[in-house]
Write a structure and sequence with these properties.
single chain, alpha+beta, two-stranded parallel ribbon, 4 helices, 43% helix, globular
Length: 127
């Protein structure tokens, strides 16, 4: 499963992007939840706050924002996402239509070509 993530600032300018491949076969909803979890872990690693995360999986956005906790592999990923969102101040997860996050999908396609994790950053984020 390939993952692509893009970070923009509040002006919409590029800040960073990341691609990686996670081995294994997952149901679609599990893969989408795992993508969100990887994004949250990356945000935490970068010490970013006040972040709005846009996902094109409505099921994942709704599950993370709900209080319901059913038992399934999907919900195990969702519980991990909820734990990570509590560690990053002011994180919001929103559903957005797929057409609006084309860049992230293109980065995910690059992960298939370059299977090692890659991170590209603008100079403003590099310390």
């Amino acid at each position: 499963m390939s993952i692509g993530m893009v970070i923009h600032n509040d002006s919409g300018e590029f800040v960073a992007c990341r691609s990686l491949v996670i081995p294994g076969i997952y149901k679609v909803e599990e893969g989408e939840a795992m993508r969100l979890l990887e994004a949250l872990l990356w945000l935490k690693q970068l010490s970013l706050q006040r972040v709005q995360i846009e996902v094109d999986a409505k099921l994942v956005a709704d599950a993370v924002n709900s209080k319901c906790e059913a038992v399934s592999v999907f919900n195990e990923f969702i519980l991990k996402c909820k734990r990570e969102t509590s560690d990053v101040p002011f994180v919001y997860v929103n559903f957005i239509y797929r057409d609006a996050i084309v860049k992230a999908h293109r980065i995910a396609q690059l992960a298939r070509i370059f299977p090692n994790p890659y991170i590209w950053m603008s100079r403003s984020l590099v310390h």
